[in-house]
Design goal:
mainly alpha, manganese ion transmembrane transporter activity, about 0% strand, globular, ion transport, single chain, symporter activity, symport, 19 helices, cadmium ion transmembrane transporter activity
């Protein structure tokens, strides 16, 4: 009897995914960028974009659009880094940088994670106060516990966590879409806002704030880890296929986040610009103003979106802390302890009664400080063929990335100087 000793070839994970069907095979490639996109619609964005619309109408529409394009480039490079190297950015820093510098990178990254959580917990607590009248400190505790529940979904796999975050992002998109329709903004004036121009020193500062806050360092760490943990590539051809999927993921997710940011500005321009409504530079003021001008439903939608934003963002921020410690130090702590470490500063600020909007501003100072530590290594690593293989940057891509990184770093340095000096 003749037997065939040749084993049948084993299908690669990508081939198995494709075997699920054309639609399901493509959908399974999506997810990591939706987690990253949440950082672009966090509570800090709510106040910044609303202030831009209230003060200058549609003048700074172009700034929001440019900021979103910059974010797409940065997150595409970040996803490519994890996919090509099989390492997260913190892991690559540990392997490639001198030990003292790596420790400095870790310390600043931990502060970034805490500052991120501070902003998101405070934003979520403000939302609970607006919706239910819950005082800020108990509200912060509720947000912290609820975020822990979202994080616990990772025990069922990264896919479940990604889907949960994508659903929360979808709620934010729907809330602002409904409010935009109710606000009756002027499409013609909105289109005119695409022409780059500024109006006085204050508009320059606000434009710098929108652009400078485009890149959140913690989502660079997270996105590189999520793309690393996706479907492993069997060869260069599969790696390119997976990168195309990651690129589509970034375009879809960041387009959704950009739409929300644009809607924030358009709603404020249509309802607040040219009026005497006070307090539109704070979350509470925007909520009250929407209730006065558009209606109770609009104010409710704003508060719900703020609550969902805080919940989703703080979950991602805590996850970033885990990625940071694991990558830079090759150590892990329990999720509960990690949650407590990042939650305590936010609760302390709420307990002493510091103004929530002021606390959000202070958190942005820390995030601004962390920008170069995340951006520079991403650009440096993705231009190296020995690391990236066939996914190495095209020279024009590197040039664009250097330009974007330089612009973001300069703007954040400018904002940092303004905040400290002012």
């Amino acid at each position: 009897m003749v037997t065939n000793d040749l084993a049948a070839p084993t299908a690669s994970p990508l081939q198995i995914a494709r075997a699920r069907g054309r639609v399901r095979g493509r959908l399974i490639l999506l997810g990591p960028a939706f987690v990253a996109a949440v950082a672009y619609v966090d509570p800090g964005n709510f106040a910044t974009n609303s202030t831009a619309g209230a003060r200058y109408g549609y003048l700074l529409v172009w700034v929001v659009v440019v900021a979103n394009l910059m974010a797409m480039l940065v997150q595409t490079l970040t996803a490519k880094l994890g996919l090509a190297t099989g390492r997260s950015l913190p892991e690559l820093c540990r392997e490639r940088l001198p030990r003292p510098l790596n420790r400095v990178m870790w310390v600043q990254a931990e502060f970034v994670a805490m500052a991120t959580d501070l902003a998101e917990v405070i934003g979520g607590a403000v939302a609970l106060y607006l919706l239910f009248g819950i005082p800020l400190l108990p509200g912060g505790i509720i947000i912290g516990v609820a975020a822990f529940a979202v994080l616990a979904l990772r025990s069922r796999g990264f896919r479940t966590f990604e889907i949960a975050i994508a659903v929360l992002l979808g709620v934010i998109v729907l809330a602002f879409a409904a409010n935009l329709l109710a606000a009756d903004s002027d499409p013609g004036s909105a289109m005119s806002g695409l022409v780059p121009r500024l109006q006085g020193t204050d508009s320059v500062l606000l434009a710098a704030g929108i652009l400078g806050a485009t890149v959140m360092p913690h989502v660079i760490y997270v996105h590189s880890a999520l793309s690393r943990d996706r479907i492993p590539a069997a060869d260069d051809a599969e790696r390119r296929t997976l990168f195309r999927g990651q690129r589509a993921d970034v375009l879809i997710a960041l387009a959704a986040a950009g739409t929300v940011n644009l809607a924030m500005l358009l709603i404020a321009a249509a309802t607040f610009h040219g009026t005497a409504i006070p307090g539109t530079d704070s979350l509470e003021g925007v909520h009250a103003g929407l209730g006065q001008t558009v209606g109770t439903a609009a104010a409710f939608g704003f508060a719900v979106a703020l609550l969902v934003s805080g919940l989703a963002s703080t979950s991602v921020g805590t996850y970033a802390g885990e990625i940071i410690m694991q990558g830079f130090l090759r150590r892990r702590i329990s999720l509960l302890l990690r949650r407590l470490i990042t939650l305590v500063p936010a609760l302390a600020i709420l307990a002493i009664g510091l103004d929530p909007t002021r606390a959000l501003v202070l958190s942005q100072v820390v995030l601004s400080f962390g920008i170069p530590f995340a951006l520079i290594p991403v650009v440096a690593f993705t231009r190296r063929r020995d690391l990236m293989g066939n996914l190495v940057n095209h020279p024009l891509t590197t040039a664009a990335a250097v330009l974007v990184a330089g612009l973001v770093i300069v703007l954040n340095t400018f904002l940092l100087w303004q905040m400290i000096g002012g």
